[in-house]
Each structure stands twice: as structure tokens, then as C-alpha cells.
Design a protein that fits this description.
four-stranded parallel beta sheet, 3 domains, D-amino Acid Aminotransferase, Chain A, domain 1, alpha+beta, globular, Dna Ligase, domain 1, Rossmann fold, 13 strands, single chain, disordered C terminus, five-stranded antiparallel beta sheet, 288 residues
Length: 288
């Protein structure tokens, strides 16, 4: 099979997905690697039918790669993840809306371009976690204990949005759940809100209720390769972030598992849920 990997500069030397590329080539597949934003791309030739069996995206939020992936999907080409599934998890404000529509446990969310606007949130909801709506990798995540601290926060870059959510009480450790083609794995890692603690990540058993929640997230958003951050708070598991094509750190045989999932998805096409199956397009019924 022939694949096109879109790999932005941030991941140019990253083991994920470049080791997946090497693994696929060693297995006899042809893999082209394009670097959006760093090279000239002939779109007419690249998007011609039959050029690639599937396109795969590894990019940062807000990067140029997603637009190219969506162009490939518009041309009828298979993409991994499904191009329609990625943007809703790249925009954390949109993520929160979709999660609420489907009853996924996620903190209440407010959005604003100016952090000072969050001062209107009633103090009973503090402390707040404030972060960019297009953020990733724990970048610019702040714990705001009281409204007076909002003045210390800067506005997001390029006129973007910030989101604010009530802090979920926890022990300072996040549960990261990875999914590769239907298989689930969990690691425990230091929360970015507790920088004084040594940064660690280690595999841990995956609680059954968290595994069921992870599967529901994949079904709702239409994702195949994804990760989610879960906090085991006083009200049970709470999703605080979802991302497509994560690092898969600490996942056993991560490269082989991701490569196998890419090949399988390329052969079977999109696994985008059909309406009525709890998909992004069909909100869950209201609770009675």
C-alpha cells in the first residue's frame, strides 16, 4: 500500500510518527512524508485519485497540515484519523460543546478572547483551569485560584479563544488513555498543573469504567487513533482533554500497533460512525 504522512516541523525528528513510517516501509509499503509549511506541494498532482491509499496526519493544533488532510478527504481519499473528526478535538471549545451534547463527563466550560472576561464567572466555580482553546501538550495551562489572578494571564495568540473550566480535585496525577485501532492502554502522569512534582509517566491498569468512557469518546468523535486525559475526581472519571494521534508513550509495541491500525484503517476505509450510533452528528437522547 502507499501512504502519505503529513508531518509538521514540530514532529520532524519525533519518534512518533517517524518510527511508524520506517516500520511501514520495512513491511513493504511505500510511504511519502510531506512537511506542510516547509516545502512546495503540488496539490493537483498530490490529490489526484489513486495516488495514495491513505493520508495520515501528525501535526500541531493550528498548523497547516489539517487543511491539507481535509482537502484529501474532500477529494474522496481515505484519511487517518477521519478528517471530519479532527477539528472538533483541536478546538477545545468545540470539544466541550460536543461532549455536553452527548453526555460525556467534562467540566462546564466558558470561552473568551480576553481572560478578564472570566471574572464574570461566579466565585463558587473557582479555582478555574484556563488554557488556549487550540492548545496542546499542556502549553499555557493555568490554575486560577481567584478572579484577581486573571489579570496575570495574557491574551491568546492571533486573537484566539481561551477556555475556562472548574478545577477537578485530584491527587496531582492525570490518567492518560491511548487508543490504537480499538485497543486501549492507560498511563499515569504528572499533571501540568503541578509543576513542582517530578514529571513522570508510567503504565497502569485501565479501570473498566474508564475504558468504557474512552470507547464512548472514540464513538462520539469518530476517532481511531486518539488519546484522552481523565481525572478520577470526586464525581467519577472526568474527561479534561481529547487529542488525535497522540505520542503513545509507554504503550507496549506502540509503533507496531499504530502501524497495524493505519494499514487496517486504510484497507477498510473510514470508521466514521453512522447517524444513530452515538456519532458526532447525532446527539445522545436526553436523560429522562
Amino acid at each position: 500500500m502507499r501512504f502519505c504522512f503529513l508531518v509538521e516541523e514540530h514532529y520532524r525528528h519525533d519518534g512518533m510518527p517517524l518510527e511508524v513510517v520506517h516500520h511501514l516501509r520495512a513491511a513493504g509499503h511505500r510511504v511519502d512524508v510531506l512537511r506542510p509549511g516547509a516545502e512546495l506541494i503540488d496539490l493537483a498532482r498530490l490529490l489526484s485519485g489513486g495516488t495514495h491509499d491513505a493520508w495520515v496526519l501528525k501535526t500541531v493544533s493550528g498548523g497547516p497540515g489539517l487543511g491539507l488532510l481535509e482537502s484529501a478527504a474532500a477529494a474522496g481519499l481515505t484519511t487517518v484519523n477521519d478528517a471530519r473528526a479532527i477539528r472538533p478535538v483541536r478546538d477545545k471549545a468545540q470539544t466541550a460543546v460536543v461532549a455536553a451534547l452527548h453526555g460525556l463527563p467534562m467540566p462546564r466550560t466558558w470561552a473568551a478572547a480576553d481572560p478578564a472576561a472570566f471574572a464574570a464567572i461566579p466565585e463558587r466555580h473557582y479555582p478555574l483551569v484556563v488554557k488556549p482553546a487550540d492548545g496542546s501538550s499542556g502549553r499555557a495551562v493555568h490554575l486560577v485560584e481567584r478572579p484577581s489572578q486573571l489579570a496575570e494571564l495574557g491574551a491568546p495568540e492571533a486573537g484566539g479563544l481561551l477556555i475556562a473550566q472548574p478545577y477537578v480535585a485530584n491527587d496531582g496525577l492525570d490518567l492518560k488513555v491511548y487508543c490504537a485501532g480499538g485497543e486501549f492502554f492507560a498511563t499515569q502522569r504528572t499533571s501540568p498543573l503541578h509543576p513542582h512534582r517530578p514529571a513522570t509517566e508510567r503504565p497502569v491498569p485501565l479501570p473498566r469504567e474508564v475504558a468504557a468512557l474512552a470507547a464512548q469518546v472514540g464513538e462520539v468523535f469518530g476517532l481511531d487513533l486518539y488519546g484522552l486525559d481523565v481525572l478520577l475526581g470526586p464525581d467519577g472519571p472526568t474527561v479534561v482533554d481529547i487529542n488525535d494521534f497522540p505520542s503513545f508513550r509507554q504503550v507496549p509495541r506502540a509503533v507496531e500497533r499504530v502501524a497495524d491500525a493505519v494499514v487496517r484503517l486504510a484497507r477498510t476505509g473510514s470508521s466514521w460512525p453512522t447517524p444513530g450510533a452515538g456519532s458526532l452528528l447525532t446527539p445522545a437522547p436526553a436523560a429522562r
